[in-house]
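Crash report, auto-generated. Payload:
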Amino acid sequence: DTEVTQTPKHLVMGMTNKKSLKCEQHMGHRAMYWYKQKAKKPPELMFVYSYEKLSINESVPSRFSPECPNSSLLNLHLHALQPEDSALYLCASSQAGATNEKLFFGSGTQLSVL
Amino acid sequence: AQSVAQPEDQVNVAEGNPLTVKCTYSVSGNPYLFWYVQYPNRGLQFLLKYITGDNLVKGSYGFEAEFNKSQTSFHLKKPSALVSDSALYFCAVRVPSGGYQKVTFGTGTKLQVIP
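Recovered output after restart:
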């Protein structure tokens, strides 16, 4: 299994809603990532988890809250988002402790904030 | 700071012709360079990487990339383009970090292969 699975594929939410994005992989990867991608732009790193511990938070607003409950799962909890948060949210994974390994990406969640 | 630049927003090429997507890099120390491809409404897929060794790196789907240290370039190439190669291509450089892959992506180049 060389897939990173993200659910849901599409999400529409209001600014007062609370929702969660889910990411799952069964490749034994111990590093997992959240990226945000605006249309026709490169992905921007948001968070990195290494061995289930938060290693990087790229100054992301607190309305985004990541969670890594176990080595296969990564969640992104959303609360009180703004319309400018509408984007494609990508999850990725890689081997941890290894240098220069490739990232495996999921297909993303297309988020629209109304 | 580690960075990559993709000077072309879009590249158009006729089917069957060779294609080149350009990337230049700016790094301190040894560069760790990658190419990823993104098809519409999909995540990124790894194509190839250069770490060390031969300057010509071969990757997935018939793509290859040439590392040129003197020109600080890492151009993506394919001898004969297919319509199915039409996609968004990102060059990336690994930023020194701990036991995870922190990469910085270029701005992307849209490849359009014309039948």
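Post-recovery validation: The longest strand of chain A covers residues 18-25.
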